[in-house]
TrEMBL record:
GO terms for molecular function: protein-folding chaperone binding. Residues 143-199 form the BAG domain. InterPro entries: BAG_dom_sf (IPR036533), BAG_domain (IPR003103), Ubiquitin-like_domsf (IPR029071). It comes from Choanephora cucurbitarum. SMART domains: BAG. This is BAG domain-containing protein. Pfam families: BAG (PF02179).
Length: 211
């Protein structure tokens, strides 16, 4: 029986299919990267893989940077999520481009990330919090599942923000950009903790008994 891994890249979703669970378990990180390369069309050396848990049990695994390890080492199961994150430094080496060190350029990058965080993600988290507070001490399994999916989606969006920030390299000469980046990282991490707290509250709500 075939199984799948869900793959996320630049906000797009696709999947990699394996002939069996055994094939998934014994596939190496390098083999998975090559499979992803065929789909996204960029060199496998230019992106990193990060593993998430299943849709209903979100957790973050370390960067999958040991190419020879089989996937079972990272406890990947069918329907788990793997996020591709471009490694800017490697990509620059492959393309022959030089890193941009102008602080104005760095601040523009950070402003774009901050606007996305403030205008897109924060309102969704606030709405999710209000919806969670509106739940009674009991709710249906369907509604509880929907809230868990929402938490997983928001956590993934926040991780993308952190990945984007990780790619903004601020040298010692870019003190303002460095401080701005630090503040946005702190805000994103705080929101990630808040989302986890809301999800925990939802998870402890009892299910309504079906008649």
């Amino acid at each position: 029986m075939s199984v799948r891994l869900n793959i996320s890249w630049r906000g797009k979703k696709f999947f990699i299919e394996f002939g069996s669970l055994s094939e998934l378990n014994n596939t190496t990180v390098n083999q998975l990267k090559v499979s992803c390369q065929r789909v996204v069309g960029i060199d496998a050396a230019s992106f990193d893989l990060f593993a998430f848990g299943g849709e209903l049990n979100l957790f973050v695994r370390p960067r999958m940077n040991n190419l020879e390890l089989p996937l079972y080492t990272y406890e990947l199961q069918p329907s788990c999520n793997v996020v591709l994150v471009e490694n800017k430094n490697v990509l620059q080496e492959l393309t022959g481009t030089k890193p941009q060190k102008d602080e104005g350029y760095l601040l523009t990058q950070l402003d774009t990330i901050q606007v996305k965080l403030r205008q897109e993600i924060v309102p969704q988290i606030e709405q999710y919090e209000q919806q969670a507070k509106a739940l009674s001490h009991k709710c249906s399994a369907k509604k509880k599942k929907q809230h868990t999916y929402t938490a997983a989606y928001l956590s993934e969006q926040l991780m993308h923000i952190l990945f984007d920030l990780d790619s903004v390299i601020c040298g010692p000469e870019a003190a303002t950009a460095k401080q701005t980046r630090k503040q946005i990282v702190k805000q994103a991490q705080t929101l990630l903790d808040k989302t986890d707290e809301i999800k925990s509250i939802v998870n402890h709500i009892s299910l309504e008994q079906q008649e």
